[in-house]
Design a protein that fits this description.
It is built from 12 helices and 13 strands. It has 405 residues and is of the alpha/beta class. The longest helix has 20 residues.
Length: 405
């Protein structure tokens, strides 16, 4: 019997899930570089040392009828906006959701593959959600740090064994790591890399999570591990939370509107941290930030280096900041119809596409149509690069035998 806690959040009535959509024609071979998963209730079962088994994160029932994760006596709930795919529009709201109120593809890998097939998605990078946060920060904040490290490893083991291991050609293995001890975090990245992980996520602005900023030497072991193993460092916009809001501002509306500026700020911070200059092999993906701001950032970088004199602290005279941006960073678009025209300034080889299943921003089950509307008129080589080629190369992921178009 799950234990009962009181969350104090009224649970509104929900409507039945919508019927399955008609399968989309796979007009384009597509790798989605930003989707999300909802960890199933059994995620940690049998994956922790015996002394921690009773302390593992678990799903509990609230008095109001919600299902939430509980860890170290604190509830963490999955808000409705995180799993809206296949839900009626009126159920797109901020409130804890039950597993039976969201599509099974959110938390069941076999159902996820079916939903990917409906959407014409060949492969998918999946970020954590419910019990770790997008940046995998929760376990690093544990009161019991040994337990937190064990939970981090257990989550990665679940991802490897069940989520990725069931369909290795369809899932790009992205892990989390231990952030409160960079040496242990680096060890976890290397452990995962040895068994095939090609990506890891950390909060895009760690200082907003009470961690040292990306400018601090603190991060050297983790950065070095990523560079030496070819592990892509994925910085998901919003994984550090929204910026501080003015009094009276609508948090959801204003925060979601600011994803582009948030991505620009985070990208500029990681660029000027000097890590990409120090580690030329480092690969950084700015997840869910779009591309509309990238050309503006490049123009500004060139300005401060050539005209204003504000860029005197750049650490590598052999490469400019904007050139380093093109060498070390990749940018992920959901649609960006007005700014795809800036692709040559950004570099076609630096642009990736995503569906963001099952989030409110997501284009499932219509991603193929969105791709067609946004880039269907581009030269075929550019379409191939943006829809799948760049992602396959970046994440070292296999492609299907037949490429379309």
């Amino acid at each position: 019997m799950p234990r009962i806690i009181k969350l104090g959040v009224k649970r509104p009535a929900t409507n039945p899930l919508l019927p399955d959509p008609e399968p989309q024609e796979a007009k384009y071979t597509f790798i989605s570089v930003d989707d999300h998963l909802l960890e199933p209730p059994h995620t940690f079962e049998g994956r922790l040392p015996k002394k921690f088994a009773a302390l593992a994160p678990q799903i509990v029932e609230t008095e109001e009828g919600h299902q939430v994760w509980a860890y170290e006596d604190t509830p963490y709930f999955q808000v409705g906006f995180m799993c809206v795919a296949g839900r009626p529009r009126e159920d797109h709201r901020v409130e804890p959701a039950r597993f039976d109120e969201v599509r099974r593809g959110c938390w069941d890998i076999h159902a996820r593959i079916k939903d990917m097939d409906l959407n014409g998605t060949w492969a998918s990078v999946n970020f954590p959600s419910g019990v770790t946060g997008f940046g995998g920060t929760l376990f690093s904040e544990s009161k019991d740090q040994e337990l937190g490290l064990a939970c981090t490893r257990a989550w990665n083991d679940w991802l490897f064994e069940e989520w990725y291991g069931s369909y290795p050609e369809r899932i790009v293995p992205l892990g989390i790591t231990f952030l409160s001890d960079p040496e242990k975090g680096a060890e976890e990245i290397r452990r995962n890399a040895k068994r095939g992980f090609t990506a890891v996520t950390v909060p895009e602005q760690p200082h907003q999570q009470g961690l040292p900023s990306c400018f601090m030497e603190y991060w050297e072991p983790i950065i070095r591990a990523c560079a030496e193993t070819g592990t892509v460092l994925n910085l998901h916009v919003g994984s550090s939370g929204f910026p501080k809001m003015p009094d009276g501002a609508p948090m959801m509306e204003l925060g979601a509107t600011q994803f582009g500026p948030m991505a620009l700020g985070s990208c500029a911070e990681w660029l000027w941290s000097g890590w990409p200059a120090k580690y030329p092999e480092l690969k950084i993906a700015m997840s869910e930030g779009g591309i509309g701001w990238v050309a503006t950032l490049m123009d500004r970088l060139d300005n401060i280096m050539s005209r204003s004199g504000y860029g005197q602290g750049w650490p590598d005279p052999k490469i400019s900041p904007s050139e380093c941006l093109q060498r070390n960073f990749w940018f992920c678009m959901i649609d960006d119809p007005s700014t795809v025209c800036t692709r040559y300034r950004i570099g076609v080889e630096n642009i990736l596409f995503e569906s963001d299943y099952p989030h409110g921003d997501g284009t499932w089950p219509n991603t193929q149509r969105v791709i067609d509307d946004v880039i269907g008129d581009l030269p075929l080589g550019e379409i191939h690069a943006i829809t799948h080629g760049n992602a396959a190369k970046l994440y070292r992921h296999p492609l299907p035998d037949t490429i379309v178009p």
